[in-house]
Amino acid sequence: MIPNKVHYIHHRFISGELAENCRIMTAYDGIKGWKIAPNELPDVVLTDIMMPGLDGFELTRRLKANAETDYTAVLMLTAKTAQSSSMEGLQTGTDDYIAKPFHVDELKLKLHNLLDRHLKLREHYVDRSTISFCKAIMAQLK
């Protein structure tokens, strides 16, 4: 019971820190996260490696294998700090990796950088009229 409560507290804390500048969608396990992503098409998925249902590695594999979500940036936030875990995450297509405990400012900066790269790609391939809205959100993350 305690790990679930701790997991819930982490979700609430992270959501609270990012909610001012981002639209947050929360899934408490990998299966729900996988069901949400193709419907909502998020710019970034923040995931843990250790989750019920699908772990973060499998969630990332599915996101990167799906034509609708393969562009989605994935940031793993996890207590698994062994190099083998970070290497597996990177091999599945994870864009970045943060070990717990983490600093909120580092999380925000990494999210900003992922969104910035995502927007640059979008500017190159998509209508530029939607870009100004996303740039305003990114400026608030800094």
Topology readout:
Blueprint: H1 2-18, H2 30-40, E1 44-47, H3 56-65, E2 73-78, H4 83-92, E3 96-99, H5 104-125, H6 131-141
Parallel strand pairs: 1-2, 2-3
Give the tags.
single chain, 142 residues, mainly alpha, 3-stranded parallel beta sheet, 6 helices, 3 strands, globular, disordered N terminus
What's this, in brief?
This protein has helices at residues 2-18, 30-40, 56-65, 83-92, 104-125, 131-141, and strands at residues 44-47, 73-78, 96-99.
What is the number of helices? 6
Helix content, binned percent: 55-70%
By helix and strand content, what is the structural category?
Answer: mainly alpha
Count every beta strand, where a strand is a DSSP E run of 2 or more residues: 3
Mean pLDDT level? 77
Strand order of the largest sheet: 1-2-3
Report low-confidence residues grouped into runs of 5 or more: 1-9
Indicate the radius of gyration in whole angstroms.
Answer: 15 Å
Major β-sheet annotation: 3 strands, parallel
Explained architecture:
The protein has 142 residues and is mainly alpha-helical. Helices cover 57% and strands 10% of the residues. The protein has 6 helices and 3 strands. A 3-stranded parallel beta sheet has the order 1-2-3. Strand 2, helix 4 and strand 3 form a beta-alpha-beta unit. It is globular. The N terminus is likely disordered.
